[in-house]
Each structure stands twice: as structure tokens, then as C-alpha cells.
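Dear colleagues,

As part of the handover before I leave the project, I'm documenting each prediction I ran so the next person doesn't have to rerun anything. This entry is a single chain, and its sequence is reproduced below.
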Amino acid sequence: MKTHAFWFVQVLALVCIFAIGSIPMVYADAHEAGEEMAAEEESSVSGWFRTDTDSLGTQIWFGASHSPSFLGSLSLDTDIYVVDTFGELDVGVGIPVVDSDSLSLSFLPMVGIGFDYAAPNGPSSLIAPQLFTYLTAGSIYFESWIQGFFNSMFDEEAGDSLYTRNFVLLSLNDILSVGPQVEVTLDLTEGGLGSLAPGLRANIAYGENNTLGVFVGFETQKGDDDTGITGRMTFVRTW
């Protein structure tokens, strides 16, 4: 009887030692699994930074695209846009139509609200509807912006407008892409054409995940004393 009790105590001691020794291993496995899940969550969010300098001044943009599993192939896209004392928040849904090695097409409808923080009177602009189109077909890249700016609902003296930007680029090599670009602004308050600027654009690879864009155009709706030469410098970084 004593012999059986002795062996029972030994087996119980071994089980306890094994259980205690397994705790760090279980914790390590759980920690590693948590890190893998966090890495998967991080990989489902892409971001970008952009700065433009043109007739509006120097503008700063930050944006991100979230791809939670419950949205399937869709993404939730957000960005903020800042110039001088004006700030804008945009929210939209990314819609991939085609995504293959040879062809990629996606649409991004958005709605934005803008605030002029120099005048603490609440919103100053509704930026809607907005539609961004992105197409890549081999060495050809096409991008289109359509944006409505409705300001009169917040300020009777402010005007409303519809703006579009479209360009097509041909990739000459891994560094340089060139092509035509045209920008049009329609005056919805007075009616007529507010701005029409056709021109040429070049995108230059500026290191990993960086792009420098230069647009040189001619403003056809220029004043008598203006040369009409206009354009934009853009820097974009993605991650």
C-alpha cells in the first residue's frame, strides 16, 4: 500500500512540474499568435501622404484605406485635406472592379465636409458628390477626379462649382511616366466655364513608395494681363 502511494506521489509531482513548465510555452504561443493577428490587421490598412502646390497654395493630405473582413472586397477609405485655415474630411468606399496582373480598375465614391477654422461658424463646404477612378492597363495609367463643391448652403455669398481632373500616363520605364492632363471647373452659381487648363504631366519615381508629379498647363480662361501658364507640383508617399 505504501509502495502504491509512493508511486502516486511521484506521478503527481511529475504532472505538476510538467504543467508549470508548460505555462511559459503556452504564453509564448499565445503571444506569437497575437502578434500574427496584429500583423494581419496592420497589413489590411494602407496609407498615403500627399502635398500639392498650385494656385490654391500648399496643401497637405493624409489618407488611409481600411479592409475589414466584413466588407469583403470593398474598402473603407478616409482622408483629411488641409490648406491654410481650411480643413476637409472625406469618407468613401473603395470598389474594385477588376484586379489582375494585366488590368486593374477601381472606383472610389466619397463625401466630404469642410471647415474654415478662421471663422468659427461650423461647416463651410459640402464636397459631394465625389468620384475617383483608377485604371491600370499594362504601361497605361488613367486617373479621374470628379468633385462637387457646394458652399452657398452655409454662406449665401459663396459660390458652388463642379471640378474634374483627368490624366493618362504612359510608363516609359521604371522611373518616368508622361501624358496629357486636363482640368475643368464649372461655375454652378453664375453658370459657364470657370476654368479650363489642358497640359502635360510627368510622374517620376522618387525612391521606394514615393512619386513626384509635375503638371504644366495653360489656363484658357485667363485674364488679359496673365500669361495663362499654370500647373502643380505633387509629392505622394504610400505605405
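Residues 45-238 form a domain with the Porin fold (CATH 2.40.160.40). The chain has one helix and twelve strands.

All the best with the project,
I.
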